[in-house]
Sequence to fold (358 residues):
Amino acid sequence: MPPLLLALLLQSGGSDTDEFIRGYATAILERDLSLRTTGVSVHEGIVSVREDELGEVPKEKVQTVLSRIQGVRGVVFVAAAPGEPPVGPSKRPVPVTGGGWSLFPDERLFQPLIADPRWPHFGMAYQYFRRSSFPDLRNVGAVSLGETFEIVGYESESAGRFALGLQPAIFAIFNMDAYSHDLVNADYRIAMPLDYRAGIFSSEVRVLHQSSHLGDEFLLDTPTQRVNLSYEAAELLASVEPGKIRFYGGVGEVFHSLPDVKPWSVQGGVELMLPAFLGDAVSPILAVDVKARQELGWNPDFCVRAGVEFTSPEKQRRRVQILLEYFHGRNPNGQFFEEHVEYFGIGLHVHSEQLRSG
Fold:
């Protein structure tokens, strides 16, 4: 029986316990690095590995492999000593992302906002517009193409972790009732985020540019006065994750726009990750996002998403979500930002690797 499958069967009773992590760590070291270790122990999410069992395998490689296990808070290497107990809080662990400066760090520090209709990620969805005065839409296809690329990171034991990156994104909607499924609107966005994490607290400061464009076929079928919406803004978001629940909030300011709009906006939300099942690979999730803008009289926009998330517990390279969605408020698609809409939807969403608190 493959060692990873054996570990899953033995540890299926709990997903976040030290024994579960120890089972994963032992199996992954044997599978990925051909290390048959007996000196792996775990205490409160800190993995302890005996140095004398590593052979020619570099510590950095062991650290990278083990850090991908969900719930691992750190890795420490200990010398062989007869009767030495598992590592405790008095030991200083090696942080899972290493120390000092790094290029293209593997892990994200600020998690995506699951219910934010304008969070950069890859996704596609069907949306049924129950209300849309203009344009007159009913069956809509929505596509998002975006990602956060971490370029440079820095880690300090006293100050926490930082990462500077890029966030390119495109958000587009299509009229599925039109003969050729006309492109209605496309928003193009580029942002530069600075992420920070210390324990269960994380934040993101970003400067962004967005421009909105109507589809040619939509303009031919629906003569309208084009709104040349383009703006630059600065946003600050903060998040705290006590366990399986997450709270976040933030503020934004538009410092340049065409046409002129009032600058301020606020945003907040909550996300709940329910206990996982099927070997910690499937998790029910519920997320609520609320946003209000000064330009629109501080009337709030609500977005609720609920469904399941699929992950690979041993690697966490991708988070794939199937989510039901409900939105009520002003149209999030740039050209129609003043119009009231209400829609229901279902979509497939893919996010890159994330760092979760232990």
